[in-house]
């Protein structure tokens, strides 16, 4: 990203995009974003700015004079759509970076999502909470627990004073509070918060949905740290089963042979195509992080059930198939085949072999 020193117009005070200190550098691509130093410019570019640079040019340009009320309303409506899209994009990007362990890079994305949410919904809206939660989780990942507590306190206060808050928001709040207490080694409180996370997530998505699986995974990590391996093991197994079922549905949907049209000739009616299930960027990153973590643990426990290793390897193979990485799909598929040699579940073993045949056909 090219840098350009600024000649400040008289009376105009420019501030850094990340820290709000006086700015001396400008992005020469959008020319509406400023920074106090090269480090902050680079951090913003890597975190989110590369994705939103051109859109910021449109959203931050001076408002032109429009002669009619209809034109002004149309422009405001278009801007509202773009800002709403930016909220979704920046939040998904921030969550994806968290799952990838890139906590510092997640901060610029979360800050942008917070700015747009304030602009669209106002300073006290419940719509700001997801941004506070990303900032809180990023702070936990960087070891800044006091800062994380401030963000989560703001999110919790907003939730408490807002009626009819969705179970999804409550779930995410309790999950982050659980992570905060786990980082402080307060395991009883961490487990209590994660139990509330699972309760609300089950209410929103169902107990066997990938939206709920994160609560099980973090709870398993807490039990693992306490040395309660059997409890942790059962929870890791549940997480694997949830992702395995979800990915199996996606793979079956993508590889299913379409039904022929009903009837013959020009009057033939095409079969209605079901909407394909998929994963967004954040869900992809979560699946990669969670399943690889469980797989590493299973491979270090050769004396445990081979079924557990088969299941997680097969889930990873399907995940990479969904991500169009056939090389990695085959690699984990082969691991699943080897692990299934001592597995008593013949149906499961056959499913793995059938999946490998699908990979060969795609390749």
UniProtKB/TrEMBL annotation:
It comes from the Eukaryota. The keyword Metal-binding applies. Keywords: Metal-binding, Zinc, Zinc-finger. InterPro entries: TPR-like_helical_dom_sf, TPR_rpt, Zinc_finger_MYND_domain, Znf_MYND. Residues 16-53 form the MYND-type domain. Residues 253-276 are annotated as: Disordered. GO terms for molecular function: zinc ion binding. PROSITE patterns: ZF_MYND_1, ZF_MYND_2. This is MYND-type domain-containing protein. The lineage of its organism: Eukaryota, Metazoa, Spiralia, Lophotrochozoa, Mollusca.
């Amino acid at each position: 990203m090219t840098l350009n020193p600024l000649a400040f117009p008289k009376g105009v005070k420019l501030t850094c995009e990340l820290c709000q200190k006086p700015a001396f550098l400008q992005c020469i691509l959008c020319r509406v974003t400023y920074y106090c130093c090269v480090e902050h410019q680079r951090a913003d570019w890597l975190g989110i700015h590369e994705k939103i640079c051109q859109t910021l040019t449109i959203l931050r340009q001076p408002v032109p004079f429009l002669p009619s009320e209809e034109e002004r309303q149309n422009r405001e409506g278009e801007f509202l759509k773009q800002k709403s899209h930016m909220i979704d994009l920046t939040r998904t990007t921030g969550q994806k970076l968290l799952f990838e362990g890139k906590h510092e890079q997640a901060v610029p994305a979360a800050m942008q999502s917070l700015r747009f949410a304030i602009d669209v919904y106002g300073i006290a809206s419940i719509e700001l909470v997801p941004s506070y939660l990303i900032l809180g989780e990023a702070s936990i990942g960087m070891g800044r627990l006091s800062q994380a507590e401030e963000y989560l306190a703001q999110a919790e206060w907003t939730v408490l004073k807002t009626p009819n808050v969705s179970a999804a928001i409550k779930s995410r709040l309790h999950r982050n509070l659980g992570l905060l207490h786990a980082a402080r080694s307060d395991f009883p409180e961490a487990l209590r918060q994660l139990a509330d996370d699972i309760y609300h997530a089950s209410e929103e998505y169902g107990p066997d949905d990938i939206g709920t699986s994160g609560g099980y995974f973090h709870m398993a990590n807490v039990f693992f740290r306490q040395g309660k391996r059997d409890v942790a093991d059962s929870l890791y197994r549940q997480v694997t089963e949830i992702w395995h079922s979800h990915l199996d549905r996606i793979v079956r949907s993508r590889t299913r042979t379409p039904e022929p049209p009903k009837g013959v000739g020009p009057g033939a009616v095409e079969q209605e195509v079901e909407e394909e299930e998929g994963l967004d960027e954040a869900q992809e990153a979560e699946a990669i992080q969670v399943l690889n973590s469980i797989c590493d643990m299973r491979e270090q426990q050769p004396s445990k059930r081979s079924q557990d290793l088969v299941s997680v390897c097969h889930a990873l193979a399907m995940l990479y198939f969904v991500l169009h990485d056939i090389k990695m799909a085959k690699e984990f598929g082969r691991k699943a085949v080897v692990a299934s040699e001592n597995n008593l579940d013949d149906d499961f073993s056959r499913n793995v072999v059938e999946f490998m045949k699908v990979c060969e056909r795609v390749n």
